[in-house]
Write a structure and sequence with these properties.
alpha/beta, 10 strands, two-stranded antiparallel sheet
Amino acid sequence: MLVVIPARGGSKGVPGKNIKVLDGKPLIQYTVDLARELFEDSDITVSTDDRAIKNTVEKLGLNVPFIRPDELATDKSGTQEVLIHALNYSKSIGKEYDTILLLQPTSPFRNSEQVREAINLYEKSKDVDMVLSVKETKANPYYILREENSFGYLEPSKVGNFTRRQDCPPVWEINGALYVINVKSLLTSSISHFKKVKKYVMDEETSHDIDTLFDWKFAEFLKSFK
């Protein structure tokens, strides 16, 4: 299994967030440390376009074998292309993989037990494209989400005859913490078009993803109780 930690340098919501210090450690270190609990360094690839991120990771003792090419270093660069680039690099040094574990560095509260459980779910599932982590969403489209119609009026995002939120079917929100991906599926189809996708459910705290300054402040708040 190839572990890929994608870490772009050009964050807009929290500038420099991947190496910004959270509770005494650069953010990316939480993910690097987690990956090293479960895998050998030779199977972990940090894919970055940023030399400051590369230097930070290498100070932790993990080699960063390449800097992403320019075409994979923009805010429009797709995850799929980044993963395939990492696969191709591994192949060029004689290592081939049939599964990728994608760990984004913006999920510092995810833990090794959850990663193990998600991998076990993937391995027990027959012919699956991907296992991804989710949390139950509070913004249930049957109950509180609305879309504007062609007349400018709001209408339910998803139609259902429910008078209480508790009666609505559970709806799952992708939390971005972990993805276990079938390489064959990755090479033959867009991730967004995968049909055989299983969920791994995480709680609210371990699902916390840092995208904005508010997310960062809340992560600091959570860390203050650890």
